[in-house]
Amino acid sequence: MDSAQLIRFLRTACPLGASLSVLITMVSCVIIVKSNNIWVSGLTWPFLSDMGRDYPAYYVFGTGLTLVAILLVFTWTFNWRYHMSALPENATVFRVLSSISFVAGVLANPGLPVLAFFDTSKHSKLHAAGAEWFFYIETIAILLNTIVSYKLYKMLTGLQVDLENACSTMGAKMQRRKRTLTIQVIFFALFFVAFLIYMPIGTSVAPQSQRLSIDDCIDKGLGETYCEVTMRLNSTSTTLYDDEKTYGTSQMRAAAQLACILTLVGYSTSFITNDYDDSEDPPELQVIHSSEKPTHWCGECSHKIASTQRAHKRKKTLMIQLIFLSCFLIAFVIYISVGMSLAPESKRLSVADCLRENLGTTYCTDTKRLDDTGTTLDDDRDAVAVSQMSAGGQIACILSLVGYSISFATNDYAEEDNSSARSAIEMHHSDEESLLR
């Protein structure tokens, strides 16, 4: 195997190996936890940190995530080199974005071995810092990478060449870029929703985790030596966490963490579909050269050129819808799913508080009066964080729906274009029949 073949092999093996390593590590830790009755904070689906806390899962967890970090460094390197070869020299902004994405993608990876080897029971702050470091920086990396992938796709669709049909030399290249972009947009949108629930929202609304007491640890059959010696924190508590009292919030965050991991695995498959080109000419020059060939070069496919503009309009509509659908989905989850599950039961504003807020005597004691002491107004001051988050999600839902509605204005409604395209196809078929006669 020469160096070129080795590089081609590594381009596929590194992202695929990283994805498989994550899945194998996660499944192995689950099996070890379930078979050894390891305490996972009382959750149905635990945090990965709980699954990799005790031996022997600790070794699997640390080794697996370290391997993933190494493979991701190679993956981001290959991806950056591809961007630098595919982007034209004058695309300065996107070349910078690609470089920032590469640096962020590489710098995020040390967070994985940190969170793996510094377990949550003995080094909770360092473990949490490693997790936040990885997920926050990785979010920046894949966001910028998706933007660059969109640019690479638009480079081909923007050329006046019928790239959609099979006879175009760049048709297959555009299809690969389209596939890469589609994978990245879908999995980034899903990842971002899970990331918001897991990190910024989850950490802000989750109450402080409580330690499992030594008595409760023994009552759960975890072993006296384990509870009183191995995991002892002080005279009454262990270093283990007890999330049973905050089950709803903690289980939501653990599920979101799992979703983050699975969507990152899905996103990494897009690196395999990159249109790596080992030829000397950069892709955009190959397209330009192909566009200078005589019209008969494309032969039987030339009739499709008339519909190129319609295809561009449909792609514009699709991109607008994908962007605003992603924004709406995030806002919807925050407003409805997360907001309603975390929000406590709303309280009524008392008549006295209504008057104290200078809302008016008639308004408080007559217009909005509910009973002797309360009004029909809600009082969310005791749950301001959750209520404000839900209200912000509601506004974002409305604005993203407004943005989505713009896509209807970009639909290719023109009937003349339909008839022109049909006429071109009919003329092409009639020419073919004449030649056959």
UniProtKB/TrEMBL annotation:
GO terms for cellular component: endomembrane system. It comes from the Eukaryota. Residues 20-199 form the CWH43-like N-terminal domain. It is found in: Endomembrane system. This is CWH43-like N-terminal domain-containing protein. InterPro entries: CWH43_N, DRAM/TMEM150_Autophagy_Mod. Pfam families: Frag1. The keyword Transmembrane helix applies. The chain crosses the membrane at residues 12-33, 57-80, 92-113, 133-153, 181-201, 318-338. The keyword Lipoprotein does not apply. PANTHER family: EG:22E5.9 PROTEIN (PTHR21324:SF2), FASTING-INDUCIBLE INTEGRAL MEMBRANE PROTEIN TM6P1-RELATED (PTHR21324). It is a multi-pass membrane protein. Keywords: Membrane, Transmembrane, Transmembrane helix.
